[in-house]
Batch of 2 targets.
Target 1
Amino acid sequence: MGQNKRMRILMCHNSTEGILCGVYEAFTSRYGHAYQKLAVGPYANGDLFSDIYSVKVDTEKAERVVKAIVNKISEEAWYRVHLAAEADSRDKGEIIYRFLILAFANGSRVLNAMSVPEVMGLHKLSRSVSRETQHLCGFLRFQELQNHILYARLVSRHHVGIFLAEHFQDRLPMENWVIHDVDRDEIWVHRSGREWLYIRHPDFKQDPQTMLSASEYEFTEWWKTFTESIAILERKNPKLQMQMLPKRYWKYMPEMEVHVGAHRPTT
Amino acid sequence: MKAIWDSQLNEKLHILADAAKYDVACTSSGVDRKNGSSGTGNTTACGICHSFSADGRCISLLKILLTNECCYDCVYCVNRVSNDVPRATFSPEEICTLTMGFYRRNYIEGLFLSSAVYRNPSYTMELIYETVFRLRTVYDFRGYIHVKAIPGADPQLIRKTGFLVDRMSCNLELPTAEGLRRLAPNKPRSQLLRPMRQIQQQITETKHEVAVYRHAKPFVPAGQSTQMIVGATGESDYQIMNVSEALYGRFKMKRVFYSAYVGINEDSRLPAVGTMPPLLREHRLYQADWLMRFYGFKAAELLSENRPNFNLLLDPKCDWAVRHLETFPIEVMTADYYRLLRVPGIGVTSARRICRARRYGRLQFDDLKKMGVVLKRAMYFITCQGRVYMPFKMQESFITTNLLGLKERLPENLVRTEDTFRQLNLFDDFHLQMPVEQEDRIKVLTGQL
């Protein structure tokens, strides 16, 4: 009988919450882990032998899963799962799902089992996201607007905005700042002394680039002067520079502005 | 609004950043200080790189001199009093403006303030103190600050400054006292070591205090560092490594930096202007430095009186391993952490991963590969569950040839001229775990950890 059981593909919303809800669904359905898969929306590749179910986002369910991970596995496991859930990957839902099956059964020591593919997969994904977060903690650039708001444009492979918001919440608590994920059209807003807020599809009344403060020009020029003067020309090594500071981050860094234009292929 | 363009400050910044560029240290690591929701800034233990300059070095701090008007005449230095270079001096307020402006825009992690000796050491130190004090109190800046301790300055000033900054450094300049006498007549070795000793003692003292009293102020929490010029005088790598070892051991340095000498001054006592800086040699010194700090190597293991210099073709660890084949192969499943670290191709991260993973299950060569072990180097030195990766001749010459065959891309002209060009990877002390110290144990008791 069991052999004729059809495969179920649980399609979740592409967000940490969405994936956690998928996990909740998969665990509570009692359909059997072997017959379920987690896919991340908006589209899933179905086939003749499987049915696609779409999972609704429910904050309460997601929170219950988080609690379970923290209590039954460990804080570190939740940290890794959260990072992985924000990755730019089609398989992340499935990787997290498979990892959690193993982890709920074995407890926190499962994170040590680097040679197990499920664990390695999660580590790889979370490491990649955490690396990009670390990069952008350094490479993100704020511009000062006329009303003293700091405005930063973000381009990233993974969806790292939330981790950056956490970082800058502690770093610049007395500033008003905005981090704008340009490609995904989302912002993280922080008001002096408060917690940050997340807004999808913000509606800017005016392009921030037209509202730069008077001293903004000065500071970018000084910064360019500094970065040029600090290089030792006898040791020049553009390859190393590119390796350490990949080109995809150059776009909004004032000191690399000249280079962006110079290297851009003509179309 | 019209942009006011302060070209004078721009000019100053150009001169004083240019003058500071030969200082190697640009690390912002070592302290983890949360902001605590007021003021500006925090610091993270692993440090953050904010940009990379054209030479591929990390830009983490606003690295500038307070002034380059120097009253000393050190032969190797651009700013020596007898050189005809443009001179400039920042006011403390200007430095604060730049630091805060850059920090808010997330250009930098903090300030690295160094200085030429202006009038006399104490006067210069006073200016540095004033700047840092202003930054910490008036601007409530909580980011990273690294300053130079000026040798010969009043110890009281160094003490006061140390309570405000994260890291202090005092450059050793040249590895030997003899070289120093010849090239830096105003800086006798004893004068350079005095502030180092003072800072070290102060750090130890306050560490106890901080451990016991919650609100005691830490003194130079990120520790002190120093720097030596390599290739300006004739000392061997063996001498340099011994000096570093002593600095790490007796002075509890956090870092010793090596700076390949860049020919800038015309002088008969120095290599000619235009000689390429010995970058590959510098790279090897850094590799050996890492081996001493994190891999448990001693300087005497790597080099000796008879072999005073590193093999430029092979990194120091491979070089050591092929000369000590009697200790290999080691079994990955059973060897302890420090034995694993001795294998070329296994680093701190992969050794740790192996130790974690083998508790859970048996490891195959494939697993090692996934954990980041470089098998093409490690294969000659390890067995995995009693098996070797593939059969080979356990012979020094055979292994050396093979190790040389893969290898880092060395410059083509290397074999011909021996010491010439290769850029190092100036990576930083990321993800390093500090050893648990007595103070930490007390902190656990008092609930600070």
Target 2
Amino acid sequence: MNTTLDTLVDILARDYCVAREQVRPEATLETLGLDSLSVLELMFKIEDRYKVKITDDTPTDLLTVSDVVRYIDGLLAANSATHSRPLEASSDT
Amino acid sequence: MTSRRVAVTGLGVVAPLGSSVNELWENLVAGRSGVARLPSAISQGLRSPIGAAVNFDGKNHFEPPRLRLLDRVSQLALVAAPQAHADSRVDFAAEQRERCGVFVGSSLGGAETTEEGYHTLYAQQSDRIKPYSVLNAMANAPAAWIGIDHGLYGPMLTYSTACSSSAVALGEAARRIQHGDVDVMLAGGTEAPLVVGVLRAWDAMRTLATEDAHDPSASCRPFAATRTGLVLGEGAAFVVLEDWDHALARGAIIHAELAGYGLTSDVAHITRPSIEGQAKAMQSALSAAHLEPQAIDYINAHGTATLQNDAVETAAIKLVLGERAHAIPVSSTKSMHGHLLGAAGALEFVITVMSLTRRMVPPTMHLDAPDPACDLDYVPGHAREAHLRAAMTNSFAFGGTNAVLILRTASESAFPVAD
């Protein structure tokens, strides 16, 4: 199964034309070419991909790729704790 | 004050019947129609499921990060405007950029984005409106992107006067050049109205043509006794307008001179056209061009194929041109490319320029049954060779803004016609 980072790399490469090798954990979204509206849109894509709900108090300091990965993993862990079985990632992104 | 002359030095189109001026022209003079049945996804529930769509997929022109910022109305404009720029061979980097600008006409702006937003809200019952919705839907988005792409620091304006929007954009751009405010303008129109909400709204007005039972492509019949209404079309058309001496100095090929612009308002009914308002606009354009009616050799008519327009426009042409009205060809190319609303004036301006340079008048198609109220020479069925000295193109609109543009051939322009 793909890691969260792999999935994020897929989204950034496909929808934002970011070169895969550029998507390193320490890279900021800004240097990858995403402005604030793109980051908002990315959150929508993550919601769709993982069937999670990102709340209005979503941290706005999701600056680096590793921050985003950590945030998604946190949401997934929280979901697993409240569901009897882990959620599977949706494939129709 | 001596007014400067305005040269047309670049042409670009993405329209039904052609995604280049040459392709468009070949289809027009061959009398082909871009009107067809629309996909059922957008035409469901329409009395008449027809339109004039452009064979255009934004994915073939823009990378995903850019594409998501662009409504279809901007996508079309951002392909047509660079064509005009390339044709003109203007090097904006070598220009005083604050003396270069962009004027765009559009009636509806980003209709697809607006529709998608409402679909998300009301049909999907979701609050997931796209973050870019405002930027995609705003009416001035096409002008803004063109300005950004070409680095135009001068005036950037968007005109929305319904079906005369882009004729107004061209006329106003010409005035800025005449007055010496600017040297080079990218001007044109863009419209992308083929979405469910817009189609249904027009359908509700009962102004759309009934689909021809035998041949949907023949549904738009300007000036015919059997005309039943307009057919909506999409597309974009742009031109480069330039100070005449500026164009000469850089060795540009001048396609034609934009010699006159007339602008009047009906101030009557919101939809019903006025003979007087249209006639005054034509008269005003003639005065601006310093031309007598007998100097006009061709009129590209507004010719929407609505019952009202075609009879009123015919009467207005006769009022202004007198005997001359019966001696010259008058055609409506909307019979082939449909009604591009805010982009119509610019598209028909480009077609009129080509009529001058190619020495050929495009036909009015599907005019088999003449209407006694429409008794001019509408060039029915077949294109005709004609050496035109000057031509007029009419654009009228709901709301009553009448815009008329007059073109003269570049060669005739070198030897001014006596008043």
